[in-house]
Design a protein that fits this description.
Helix content: 25-40%
Strand order of the largest sheet: 1-11-10-9-8-2-3
Structural class: alpha+beta
Number of helices: 12
Strand content: 15-25%
Radius of gyration: 23 Å
Distance between the termini: 51 Å
Shape: globular
Number of domains: 2
Amino acid sequence: MNDPEDDRAEAVLDRGGLDALVRALKRRGRTVIGPTVRDGAIVLDELGSADELPHGWGVELEAGRYRIRRRQDGAAFAHSAGPQSWKSYLHPERVRQWTVDRHAVDGLTVRAEEPESISYAFLGVRPCDLRAIRILDRVMGGGRYRDAAYLSRRTGAFLIAVECTEPGATCFCVSMGAGPAADAGYDLALTELVDASGHHFLCRSGSEEGAEVLAELPRRSADEGMREAATRAVSAAAEHMGRTMPPVDLRALMRDSLEAERWDDVTSRCLSCGNCTMVCPTCFCTTTEDVTDLTGDHAERWRRWDSCYDLDFSFLHGGPVRATPRSRYRQWLTHKLGTWHDQFDSSGCVGCGRCIVWCPTGIDLTEEAGALHREASRKESAP
């Protein structure tokens, strides 16, 4: 939500400065969330100190495959996006909306659930996820129907971006018009550098509060050599993306490929499990469910995540609108890359690659978009 031209300060932190950053945020009453190693993955969780960050851990990624691996250095952020995104905190999987209790004497008591207000600080937000948060801001926090539960978590959240210097094999943010550099929407941005001179973080502020926090930390001035090293590292990452989208108008490609034969090929492999929508940092669809206790005297309504892969997601009187895996996968991909523009003036994809990694059968949306493009090109060139 901040303009990058609001940058007010720049400095260099060491590992001690990173831990001081966590302590400073906690003193301000913030719940600090960041990456940590647990259960064989790098996940997001509440941090007590910077020591809980995944120092010395990296990841090996491919379609349908994820492994953590030990690194030779002590880098804390040299890993690609894990199975969670910040959506898990801003737009949680389950939110209670109201409760109702039945009384023998005076009827019913209905209580609306007040939105939970948490002062978050997110440490380690990748530029792709920074962009995803801005997309969710438009979807959940903009327009006529603003979501109070989302805004209660998002308003005032302190975002610490970490620029990517080592993209994963499934990353393709550059071809989605973004990149490994943090451009906007952060309070602080870090570029991690591990070299012969030590372990450093070039830190710049992007908001007034970010500058205030940075001023509280042990730091030293950034010199031109440090700035150039950071720029080189991020620029090199942009040139080494593991995946790429076809260089075409994806919105037009999706619009003109509704009857493509490729949909049959991909959906012969799709399980309709919805993993891609669960790990996607921008998928936002929900449904509601009512639950009651055994007596029937207490009931609750919960909102929970839903997926366009669910057969009942498009259920109307008489049956589901999208009854086949083909129609459901096509709905997801054409919405994400195409009709999202009609609703929210941007693509719904930020190029993080999570959907590729966490698909059980390794379906790769960049490969599918490329196949649709090749099929359309063949048809155009056919006599």
